[in-house]
Amino acid sequence: DVSRAEDVEAAFARSSASSAPPYAVVLHVAGQASTIRSFADPGGDFATNALGTMNVVQACLRHRVGRLLFASSMTVYGAPLRVPTPETELCAPVSYYGISKYAAERFVLATAARPDLAAPFHATAFRMFNVYGERQRLDNPYQGVAGFFIGSALAGAPITIHGTGEQSRDFVHIDDVARAWLGAIDAQGAYNRVFN
Fold first, then answer.
1. Do you find a cis peptide bond into 84, omega within 30 degrees of 0?
2. What is the rounded CA–CA span in Å between residue 194 and residue 125?
3. Could you tell me where the DSSP H helices lie in the chain?
4. What are the tens digits of pLDDT across the range 5-30?
5. Are 125 and 195 in contact, with CB atoms under 8 Å apart?
6. What are phi and psi for residue 147, nearest 5 degrees?
7. Residue 97 bears catalytic tag
8. CA 105 to CA 88: how far, in whole Å?
9. What is the number of helices (H) and of strands (E) in the chain?
């Protein structure tokens, strides 16, 4: 549970206590990922996404992990004025989930920008939206509309589209996400930047 600093520290301590080398990179994907749940439990959402990320960053610094990749979210934009949305678009989240992810993202990047750190620390934030792919649950409306729509179609259930049907969504396959993340690990051009 990343919201519990002692749990995060225990995960890092396992690496330090073993004969294996300490972590060189942390891929931080832990989080509460449902906009709907963020409204039902805003404290839990913020504790997991923002405070949990702070716990991960602080553990990285204590254990001298020099590289962090962070799973942010396209929800940090709120209702963007431009589609496709460039990374320079104004962030104005309209959900508690978007707010907690943006707070976490800013903490990650502000920490990476600090000149007073005892060891190098470079971070990259990925603002992902509607990731889909193999082994995705097809029955959970809180974990991506693509999987839920596919699951409904396979079950012969109706597919409900809310709103006017004019809205647009960005979909990205998990293979593309994995390629981007792995490619960013050693890419100095990705240090301390945000990518959609």
1. yes
2. 5
3. 5-17, 35-40, 42-46, 52-62, 96-112, 145-154, 174-184
4. 999 999 998 766 666 667 899 999 99
5. yes
6. -60, -40
7. yes
8. 14
9. 7, 6
